[in-house]
Amino acid sequence: FVQVNVDDKPWLKYQSQGNKKAYVQQFEKYGMLYKTSVLSKHEFSDVVEELESLSLSTVKETTSSVAKNRTGARIPSDSKIYSILSNENGNFMKLINELVSSNESVNGRMVISDIVPIEMRIYEQRGASMEMHYDDVLFSPEQIEVVFTIENTSDCSTLWEEKDGEKKIMKEVQTEKNSAIILFAGEKLGCRHAVSPLKQGKRVILKFVFVHENATFLEGADVHVKQFGEGKKNKNKNKKR
Ligand SMILES: O=C(O)CCC(=O)C(=O)O
Ligand SMILES: [Fe+2]
Fold first, then answer.
1. How far is the CA of 209 from the centre of ligand 1 (A)?
2. pLDDT in tens, the chain (241 residues)
3. Helix crossing, 91-99 with 20-30: angle to 10°?
4. Which residues form the pocket of ligand 1, taking CB atoms under 6 Å from any ligand atom?
5. Cα dihedral sign for 220, 140, 87, 94?
6. Long-range CB contacts (< 8 A, 24+ apart) of 9-16?
7. ipTM, interface predicted TM-score of the complex
8. Whose CA is nearest to atom 9 of ligand 1?
């Protein structure tokens, strides 16, 4: 896959310098972070192995109007993938909680949502893409959306708009495996983003959601959650997250 040259993209440099504060600052300032080498080698290979062994049957995505030509599947909630991503001492939980640690409105811990399923999404068909959008706000306070890349041999770029006062700057990256895009849902804390149409190759991501441990699921938000058919429709009705 295409490697991003950090010398051309100075805003990516914090990743290779291992400067923790810089990527936390990036997230605090823009509500959006692209971070590479997110899981340990061991965690990542466990995730990839389980995905292969699950051999999920994928369906065309229908409920999202901004997504084109993507397919996907739900990851079962009793999977190892769930436990790796929700492990208190795992790299993912540590990263998310580090990002919000000085955010006063996120007073408390972030946990993986048990209402919004982890979903695999595949960009493989020609034209697979997403138009510019904000992610739908499903919780109060706003959830954090994660796009975790499993593999990417495609020519898709993820673009996002960083607002600096009146100035808007468009950033772009071809996400590498074991990287994550981490962003707040909604216009207030998050930022607009898109994926350019695929011409060749394949890109597989996991999409999942972190919420404040006391977050409430917003009324009517469930229409956005029924992405790949059936699943646990009523099970979580009265749960908080
Ligand atoms: O695939 C990506 O990089 C972004 C996906 C996305 O924004 C979404 O599924 O809402
Ligand atoms: Fe999105």
1. 12
2. 455 666 666 666 665 455 557 899 899 999 999 999 999 999 999 999 999 999 898 999 877 779 999 999 999 999 999 999 999 999 999 999 999 987 766 667 899 998 999 999 999 999 999 999 999 999 999 999 999 999 999 999 999 999 988 899 999 999 999 999 999 999 999 999 999 999 999 999 999 999 999 999 998 778 777 666 544 333 344 444 5
3. 60
4. 130, 135, 147, 158, 175, 181, 193, 195, 205, 207
5. positive
6. 9/173, 11/171, 12/173
7. 0.99
8. 207
Q: Which ligand is the nearest neighbour of the Cα of 121?
A: 1
**Does the predicted model carry a pTM greater than 0.95?**
no
Looking at 2.60.120.620, 3.90.480.10, 1.10.287.470, 3.40.50.12230, the CATH number of the domain 19-224 comes to: 2.60.120.620
What's the 66 CA to ligand 1 centre distance in angstroms?
10
The answer for 48, left when phi > 0, alpha when psi is -120 to 50, beta otherwise, is alpha
